[in-house]
Amino acid sequence: MDYRHLGRSGVLVSPLCLGTMNFGPQTSEPDSFAIMDAALDAGINFFDTANGYGGGETEQIVGRWFAQGGGRREKVVLATKVYGNVAGDWPNDSKLSARHIRDACEASLRRLQTDHIDLYQMHHVDRATPWDEVWQAMDLLVAQGKVIYVGSSNFAGWHIAAANEAATRRHSFGLVSEQSLYNLKTRTIELEVIPACESYGVGLLPWSPLGSGLLGGSVGQGDGRRATDGMKAAAEWLRDTLEAWEKLCSELGERPADVAIAWLLANPVVTAPIIGPRTMDQFTGSLRSVEIHLDADVLARLDKIFPGPGGPAPEAYAW
Does some domain include residue 315? Predict the structure, then answer.
């Protein structure tokens, strides 16, 4: 396994991150345990979850898996998230106030049955809370040893810049990673998020690397929690594009899902795409992606099939 630094940090993580969003809601606890064991056996040491997944059930499943011992917790770089409302409907039970960050962290630690979170991610930007308050809370968790690194998710490029500049003023390390929606079909973040990540040494963790299954083959059947009637309609609307995509993958002799992830891994700003298997077959199938090398010709053909926004801003839209 070719381990990579998580952004500009010194910690090394696998080039695939095991997303646990389906554990509980769609994948039974025994099957979830088996997938996590298989991930460790394959050398995957980077697991991602969130306090809101399954209303907290997913973190509990991961925690019970850790509790089995055998070095499970010690081998894993554990990432979870804070923002959503899990505890109840009271005004301070969500978002990024210092109070909620503190309470949510304590609750995640209990569910995960651990004394620290390796990567604590803001699941969304909170426009109503000043960055000094956010970093005051995060810095305290770091000082207490409850959090090691801080990351973001679903941030705009200017949010990444604002967060890291505020951290610098406080002499804090700042964000080490950003989780964004990114795949061949959805490339908006190439305008400003990816340039911001590159500039600040923030590792990119793409979620939905298969575009909710559209890039998985069989002309985008759709799969997973985000597969909806709307996504199925999108598959029909993109039929010509998806057929060209699958033809190229067939020429390469590779599964479309593996090529989609390999395309992300070819980007030097990407640390690790997040794979979210529901089944063991889906998990083991993803492992091939780290072995695929896409040359410049293939990358150029993919750009023609799935045109991006034209590069970084402002060059993408200005002279």
Answer: no
With H, G, I as helix, E, B as strand and everything else as coil, classify residue 248.
helix
Quick: pLDDT tens for 15-74: 999 999 999 999 999 999 999 999 999 999 999 999 999 999 999 999 999 999 999 999
- Residue 168 counted as domain residue: yes
Q: Please tell me the pTM assigned to this model.
A: 0.95
Residue 271 to residue 165: CA distance in whole angstroms: 22
User: What does 40-75 look like in DSSP terms, one character per residue?
Assistant: HHTT--EEE--TTGGGGHHHHHHHHHHTT-TTHHHH
For the chain, the domain total comes to: 1
- Show which residues are catalytic: 53
SS3 state at 151:
strand
pLDDT at 193 over 50: yes
- Tell me which residue range forms the domain holding 274: 4-305
- Cis-peptide into 314, omega within 30 deg: yes
* Beta strand extents in 139-292 (DSSP E only): 147-153, 175-181, 203-207, 274-275
Contacts of 180 (CB under 8 A, 6+ apart): 153, 154, 155, 189, 193, 204, 205, 206, 207
**3-class state of residue 181 by DSSP:** strand
Q: pLDDT tens-digit profile of 291-317?
A: 999 999 999 999 999 999 999 999 999
What pLDDT score does 227 carry?
53
d(CA 92, CA 284): 41
Which CATH number goes with the domain that contains 154?
3.20.20.100
* pLDDT of res. 221: 57
